[in-house]
Write a structure and sequence with these properties.
two-stranded antiparallel sheet, mainly alpha, 18 helices, elongated
């Protein structure tokens, strides 16, 4: 009986002009956004690869100079573009794509894509994730808000029940029918996204990450299907049901993300750029300066070296005092910059935790966070890149400071280590996203219980 009711529901939905029109519009938007995102992804990947190759060529062919001077000349570390950013570009456009690496200074990621876009582009960023997460629930609401109230208002409810269908079978059949209708729209798009990934330069685990995104979306849509059915059963008429569901969508998709962002900024304040740099300068001044051998800390370092090697002058040292002093100064700077970066990043991660706490009220926040995490376009993936870029900078400068004295040629620079970025593994991502996934499952269970509760608490007259 449930399948018969579901079949009837699908037929009615397919005949519904509202469903056909909105489905065609969403399908066009999804396909169009995927094609645009795929082309953009390929273009940016090629640009990054070309820029990375050029930076390496410039580094290896910078001519004769001292190794330490090359450290001041600097080079770049480029963040690879994840293949799944064609589904959800997340925060990538706001966080920068490369870091300039130089001696004695830590730089943040620069060349943010958002700076090249006008205000309209910032407001309306059409992407598959935007359509999947924000627009698809609207379609579900439009399909389900009157799924039961229509039967009451048209007088067909008693006829259906008189044919032997129970209250539970009627509601479950309508929910199943909505699922069939939604899957008819989603399956071709999901297959298209799968094909795009296959024809891209994907990495191990990307296909499984895509499956996890799809799984999360199905849970997310299940929440709205359940709530639509439950609201339709509880509401006295279709208009009231629609108002309830649209209000929930506005709170979940529009109000809560903005409100949560404001709360997180107030509870976990970030220092201004000026204050951040001033704190770093104070910390640097409290340590040894590798370029100032006359400072108090440099003299103390020299005396400790003389005592260690039991000599009376730096000229008698069996090692290069100048190189060791610079390396000691670089070691202090590294610790200062690492501590400052960690503290700042911890503030942003604390703000992120506020989003997670408020996700109980907004499944949209949960889905957005899961989508970015699985697509490797979230904040933690960016921090993973900046930490590795900083580790590479430290290792590179250390190798330069410990290199031969005097001028070196291109052969020396060609032997310098290259930046090799290792993205977060799927296991690491699952460790960070398991709570969000659990909360989304709880939303699915809770909304499903509301459907069952509506069956037994309402007389369905």
């Amino acid at each position: 009986m449930i399948l018969l009711i579901a079949k009837k529901e699908v037929k009615e939905l397919l005949r519904n002009n509202r469903f056909r029109l909105t489905s065609i519009i969403l399908l066009i938007l999804l396909v169009f956004s995927m094609i645009i995102s795929w082309n953009t992804n390929i273009k940016i990947q090629k640009e990054h690869q070309a820029a990375e190759a050029l930076a390496r060529v410039q580094w290896e062919n910078q001519g004769k100079k001292s190794a330490h001077s090359a450290g001041h000349y600097g080079t770049f570390a480029f963040k690879p573009i994840p293949v799944l950013s064609l589904i959800d570009n997340g925060l990538n456009k706001y966080l920068g794509v490369s870091v300039f690496l130089e001696a004695h200074r830590q730089n943040s990621a620069s060349y943010k894509q958002i700076t090249d876009q006008n205000d309209l582009a910032r407001f309306a960023d059409l992407s598959p994730a935007y359509v999947f997460i924000y627009l698809m629930p609207l379609l579900i609401i439009l399909l389900g808000f009157n799924s039961y109230t229509t039967e009451k208002e048209s007088g067909t409810l008693q006829l259906i029940l008189s044919q032997g269908a129970s209250k539970r079978q009627l509601v479950l059949g309508k929910a199943l029918g909505m699922w069939f209708a939604i899957l008819l729209l989603l399956v071709p798009v999901i297959i298209l996204g799968f094909c795009f990934i296959l024809f891209s330069n994907y990495e191990n685990g990307d296909l499984l990450r895509y499956i996890l995104i799809v799984f999360s979306l199905l849970l997310y849509y299940g929440v709205f299907i359940h709530l639509s059915i439950a609201a339709s059963v509880w509401a006295k008429n279709s208009n009231f049901s629609l108002i309830i569901l649209l209000s929930f969508w506005m709170i979940s998709a529009l109000l809560m993300p903005k409100l949560t962002a404001d709360i997180s900024k107030k509870t976990h304040k970030t220092p201004s750029a000026i204050a951040y740099q001033e704190n770093i300068k104070k910390a640097l001044d409290n340590g040894i300066n590798g370029h100032d051998p006359t400072s108090e800390k440099a003299i103390a370092f020299k005396d400790s070296l003389l005592k260690t090697y039991q000599v009376k002058s730096i000229d008698s040292l069996p090692v290069s005092y100048r190189q060791l002093l610079m390396q000691e100064g670089e070691k202090h700077e590294t610790a200062v910059y690492k501590n400052a970066m960690t503290q700042l990043n911890n503030v942003y991660l604390d703000q992120l935790k506020v989003h997670q706490l408020n996700a109980f009220i907004s499944p949209t926040i949960l889905m957005r966070m899961l989508s970015m995490q699985f697509a490797k376009s979230d904040l933690q993936s960016h921090y993973n890149f900046t930490y590795q870029a900083e580790e590479y900078r430290n290792a590179l400068i250390s190798s330069l400071n410990s290199g031969p004295r005097g001028a070196v040629d291109s052969d020396f620079f060609k032997e310098n280590l290259k930046f090799d970025y290792h993205p977060l593994t799927l296991a690491q991502t699952m460790e960070k996203s398991k709570s969000n996934l659990l909360y989304l499952i709880l939303w699915w269970v809770f909304s499903g219980l509301l459907v069952l509760l509506s069956v037994y608490k309402n007389k369905l007259k």
